Amino acid sequence: MSALLAVLVFGPFVCGICSYLLGRYSKEMRNGFVLLSTAAELGLLLYLSGEGSITLSFPDVCGLGIGFELGGFHTVLAFLAASGWFTASVLSMEYFVHVKRRNRYYMFWLLTLGATMGIFLSADLYTTFIFFEMMSFTSYVFVVQTEERAALRAGGTYLAVAVIGGLVTLSGIFILYHQLGTVQISEMASAAEAVGNKTVLWTGGILTLVGFASKAGAFPLHIWLPTAHPAAPAPASGVLSGVITKTGIYGVSILSVTIFLHNSTWGMMLAVIGGITMILGAVLGVLSIDLKRTLACSSVSQIGFILTGISMQCLLGHHNALAVAGTILHIVNHSLIKMVLFPAAGVIHLSTESFDLNDIRGFGRGKPLLAVIMGVPMLSLAGVPLLSGYVSKTLLHESIVEYIEMAGASAWFFHCLEWVFLISGGLTLCYMLKLFFCIFVEENIAQKDMEKHWKLNRPGAFIAKASAVVLLAYAVCMPLLGAMPTKMMDPIAAFGRGFFHGEVPEHAVEYFSLTNLLGAGISLSIGILVYIFLVCTMLRPWHADQDQLYINPIPAWLDLEFSVYRPLLTVLAEILLLLATVVDRFFARLLFGFVPKCIFFIKRFLMEWWAQVYYLFMRETYIPRPSLEEFGDDEHFAFYANHPTGQKGIMHSFGFGLLIAGIGLGIVLLCILLDII
């Protein structure tokens, strides 16, 4: 069975390369091979799941060795990945009919599947990190698939967060390994108890948290989600939101159930991060006027709900049964829901060629099938009773209420957290109502002209039969799970409980008790009121004899990425360039110009080599500007721009990428030095 576990992890890597080679000869053979590969991955996982716990290790690989484990929570996450990839592969066959560069896309599609399975099945933190970095770089291709200006800019943000977060996480793992002597998930908890210097342990834990939380989409490193999702193809957005964000959650969970097991301080920190993340994402979702951006902001908010559940596990200690069940089930629910909503958004885009709410208004009128496919997951995510989302949110809410009685002096904070939870859930209903009424109920003044335009863009059926069957199957699961939570959802939570050291509930949860229904009713009432008095009035200002258009009132200067992060990185990059110039001048005088000449030729070689690599893989010609021949001085090396997009300056340069790597390496060396001291 260990050999089959290796196939489960490494098989998609081999299939990815094979799909690329097949695609050079036959597109039909490649498409069939990709579908077969993802179906085989799902089938193999289901087969191995019935064999109990399976482990596999390669002790001599990468120094510390790598190891994998199947069973419990690992299996739950692996199933979400395998089923999500298979579903998205079916949808991709329709979505990419008229899209270029499909060969490249499908190769990295399968490579990312393999990397994601490696993360979810990893038995130690080192293996998690190795495959985590693989996934970050292979999934980058999804974001820049169209190679349009917005996609390349979003890809730059995605890659910057991945590189900086990954290097900071690596430095944290170095510190943890030095302190604990192991990074095996099963051994880290006992090793952490024996560590005397908890300060160094906290330093390593927080640094490790940065990279995982950034991939999950937690505040303040959530910036990649609202930009990457609108740029990526809809099927890829589904796995980015539904599956890849869970790799970050998995990393946060490892820290929370090992070195910070039942640690109240760690739990308080995650509660603050989770509370800010869920309310911020919900507010951004209400104000957004782009379909996919709204769904991306929704993902940010739901990650906040999950982080809140993890925080309550730490705070409740041995009484964490409800928090553990709520966390596991909300991970499952969010994945299922986003694997429907993002591809459905792609269906709308194929016909309308837009995600703007003012352009797609009324598209769903007279399309009951699409209304069911999108309406059910929308209501489920909002926590409407008898749907699966209600079950997980009820458990998370009850865990907060349960801890309020134990919180003592800090009870006021958790009363506030409870209201943040309820308001965020209400805002979820608000922006889902906004999307549903916009697409399926509202009517444009120019409705007839829009329908004519849509028919010209997409003659015949607006959705392929295979896509409709897959999406409808996902949607049908939600009321089945939600109507019988004790029989359908509690076993899922019990299956993954062991990873979180979760206790068995003392009694069965009364999901449809008056108290739980009242909590859901308060949240849903908030959403309805906000929709009526905010969305329908202030966000859709009325004009006589004109259409009521949605507006986004958020000013540009409130954008964290362009108002804070990019300017800070630019300043830091300029400082590093200035220091490099000073050092270069010093050695130039000291060694009579020999060293600068060597550096000049090395840089030129690197630039020419990098240009050829980008030409082969991105099908674009990257040229140095200004040229070294013209200026002859290495101070212009950072200005290495993408000519077709017309972007200039250090923020769009190969030199800037090197600077990011340099910053990360500097942090690693500093942490190692501090640890030694």
Q: Could you characterize what this model shows?
A:
It is a single chain. With 677 residues, the chain is an all-alpha fold. The chain folds into 3 domains: 1-186 and 217-244, no CATH class; 262-546, no CATH class; 556-676, no CATH class. The chain has 27 helices and 2 strands. The chain has helices at residues 2-23, 27-49, 73-95, 102-120, 125-138, 140-143, 149-180, 185-193, 198-216, 224-231, 234-257, 264-287, 291-316, 321-352, 357-360, 368-382, 388-404, 411-441, 447-457, 465-483, 485-488, 490-496, 514-535, 560-590, 594-618, 628-631, 654-676; strands at 54-58, 66-70. Strands 1-2 form a two-stranded antiparallel ribbon. Strand 1 (54-58) and strand 2 (66-70) form a beta hairpin. Helix 3 runs antiparallel to helix 11 (234-257). It is globular and about 65 Å long.
Strand order of the largest sheet: 1-2
Q: How would you state the average pLDDT, rounded?
A: 79
| Beta-strand percentage range | under 5%
Q: What is the number of strand segments?
A: 2
> Roughly how much helix do the residues carry, as a percent range?
over 70%
Secondary-structure topology with pairs:
Blueprint (H helix, E strand, L loop, with lengths): L1 H22 L3 H23 L4 E5 L7 E5 L2 H23 L6 H19 L4 H14 L1 H4 L5 H32 L4 H9 L4 H19 L7 H8 L2 H24 L6 H24 L3 H26 L4 H32 L4 H4 L7 H15 L5 H17 L6 H31 L5 H11 L7 H19 L1 H4 L1 H7 L17 H22 L24 H31 L3 H25 L9 H4 L22 H23 L1
Antiparallel strand pairs: 1-2
